[in-house]
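Ticket closed. Logging final result for Type IV pilin protein.
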Amino acid sequence: MLIRRQSGFGLLEIMIAVAIIGILASIAYPSYQSQVERSRRTDATTSLLALAQMQERIMATCGEYATASVTDATSCGDALGGGGEGIGLGQADAVSEEGFYSLAVAGDADSYKLTATAQGAQVNDEDCQTFELTELGVKSGGVLIDLNTLEDNDCW
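Final structure:
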């Protein structure tokens, strides 16, 4: 009589495989999330650099930086006096291109400070929640401790 041996996996082998997969996933997922947050930071930097470029164009054309909202300025009077509902400089909304940062423009005729603040899913980025760029090209970024203090990290 021929005895056939069954092949396949038993319950114990499957449970060990599931446990190993669970351990690997618990290690890999936080690292993946951190990498995703770091890659989203480019949304802030590219948005701020685009706004800075527009400010420099206005300075070159009009002799001073825009001080108010400008969405569809066609002259220096429009650019310097404001018009429209956007945050300024040809951008109609106050959100970065991919929507992970809210944008703000502050300043006067001789200077400006552009700010990108994390919103939505990017708020979980504990190292770089706020990015700033000035007319001098000074870049800073980190966690906003209070309205006037930025704990600077290497976000750029």
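The domain at 11-152 is CATH 3.30.700 (Glycoprotein, Type 4 Pilin). No further action required.
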